[in-house]
Amino acid sequence: MLKSRVIPLWILTGVILWLGFACQAEAYILPARFYLAKYARTRASFRRLRIKQMTTSLVQGKKQKREEVLYLQSPGNIRLEQRHKGRLVQVDIWAGKSWLHWKKGEATRRRRRPNPRLDLFAVESSGYGYGSIRSLLRRMRVFYRGSQTWDKSSDYREQNRVGLTWFVGHPVVILGAQRKDQKQNQLWLDKSRFVPLRFVGQLRKKGPIWDIRYLDYNKIGGRAVFPGRVEVYRNGKLTSRTLVYQIKQGSLPAHIFSRVR
Question: How far are the Cα atoms of 17, 53, 227, 231 from residue 238, in angstroms, in the given order?
């Protein structure tokens, strides 16, 4: 005669609680615009930043280090200086729709393209171009509102391109894809601090797959401001790592975003 097995009450209770928590975790995804508005509010309070950092790039298996000074002025203005032994050797300026590149006395101006490594930290909620979060995400091909950018489904919780997961110990909202969907461009936002933690995707059709991770955030006034470490992967291989060693907030002269010197 077969003996019946009795499941201990504490195990049954634990399973029920776990299932309830899991369901609540999945349901607790607000519309994408909520998280973007929170992120924009955080950025608006830190509009003018001067950042000193060291970037190590891997070129043909060899490490190349460069000192950098980064200036961020929202909406959309970015200046990146590269120095060697204290001397200015390269300047890149992203302002409006243009990108100015200067190196060794030669300057070229080109049409601006998305730069997920930097653009996400010089944005606001309103406006147009690269200074607007929504416009920038559209250029980055992060379609978090369904198959089209302005799909009405974004107004509800049942969004087919908004997911929830964990990353480096933080709850994360995925904009642009569901969890485990690697075919769609996606931006990962910290669910509680409202800062970007990761961008994964292609910036052009048939282009390389970029995986940019924003880690170890620096804080001003107790609030996360800028990542202390940025890692860039191209097709799964680490190509550069940036470490921040100083960050200051204050007024920035307007001319630094229009001319090299």
Answer: 40, 18, 17, 7
Give the whole-angstrom CA distance, residue 40 versus residue 171. 19
What is the C-alpha separation between 85 and 241, in angstroms, rounded? 20
Domains and CATH numbers, the chain: 29-257 (2.50.20.10)
Question: Which residue, among 219, 45, 9, has the nearest Cα to 124 in the 3D structure?
Answer: 45
- Identify the CA nearest to 231 among candidates 259, 253, 261, 200: 200
Give the integer Cα–Cα distance in Å for 42 and 20. Answer: 32
Neighbours of 250 (CB within 10 A): 7
Q: Quick count: other Cβ atoms within 10 Å of Cβ 69?
A: 16
- Summarize pLDDT for 32-55 with one digit per residue, the tens: 888 898 998 888 888 899 999 999
What tokens does 14 get?
């634990």
| pTM for this prediction | 0.83
- End-to-end Cα, the chain, rounded Å: 91
